[in-house]
Amino acid sequence: MKNFDSRAYSINDFLEWNDKKQLVLSPKFQRKAIWSDDAKSYLMDTIIRGKPIPKIFIRQTLNIENRQSIREVVDGQQRLRTILSYINDGFAIKKKHNQKYGGFFFSQLSNIDPDIQSTILNYEISVDLLVNLPDNEILDIFARLNSYSVVLNQQEKINANHFSEFKILVDRLSHKHNDFWSENKILTNQNILRMADATLVADLVIAMIEGIQSKKQIKSFYTKYEKEFDYDTDALERDFDETIELIKSVFDETLKGTQFKRIHLFYTLFTSFYHTKVGLKNLDVVRQEIETNKYERTKIALTDLNVLFGTVPFQNMSVPQIQFLEDSRRATTDTKVRVRRTKFILDIVNSI
């Protein structure tokens, strides 16, 4: 027998219940974690943009004496506290999350857009209503929900706990180039669903800023950039986009048929091409742009590296080729090997 009811309630509904003391926001089931200012800002930016937020679970009971329904928030307390605080001018969205509405309190939004306040109040939140369920039933529901939950990987955990301009840039670039990742078989759709695209883009943007780094350092850079990210995100986005376009121009539609579709080798291809356009920190290789009339020869030279991964005996290879093959087969992502692979590719590109 179904013991819940799925509905959608507007933010204004929650405000009315709270004003009438019909909303309980501190039940025994909720964790006492406190959201950061960035997390609160990011949630409200999500709502202002009209994007969905996770559903909320509410236990509804009837007070017989006054015949009022009491709504006890079983899951979603921090989300609702954040929303109610924002509506009551408790904080403003940060500029880094929303250039248009950032820095303004809710009561000031009408000065920017006369309709935005009503849009926010009419925003609907999905709710599962648990009617008159006892505590043991609610605990059982959450035990069952958790048993089906997928364990978060590192990138998913990072994404859930960071709200910096770096994280926003990474997410934007990941989504913008979604077709490129999948069409060139760099990432599968399943990889993308588990945020492998964000991992790759974060890794690449870190290289653009800091020079080639170990992949193991991604988490520490997210933490570093959460505190301060004093970089021009527009310039970074432009340079990233232009590097992807250069790769497209050189390889046309043949990238997926090369070894460079493998993530660790795509990283090397990107850092090499980025160096020809902009230059990488701490890389002692002459920066030489790839001229348009050299695109075809560059493609052929790099595609020919496929042969190394076949049955060519070591005695027919040069020492640098053997080293590149060994570095590539191991898919190592430490700094030293990454630098070595990038230098190898740049030596080929610069010799054309």
UniProtKB/TrEMBL annotation:
Which InterPro entries does the annotation name? Answer: GmrSD_N (IPR004919)
> What domain of life is recorded for the organism?
Bacteria
Q: Which residues form the GmrSD restriction endonucleases N-terminal domain?
A: 19-163
Question: Which Pfam families does this entry report, sorted A to Z?
Answer: GmrSD_N
Q: What is this protein called?
A: Uncharacterized protein DUF262
Q: Which organism is it from?
A: Olleya aquimaris
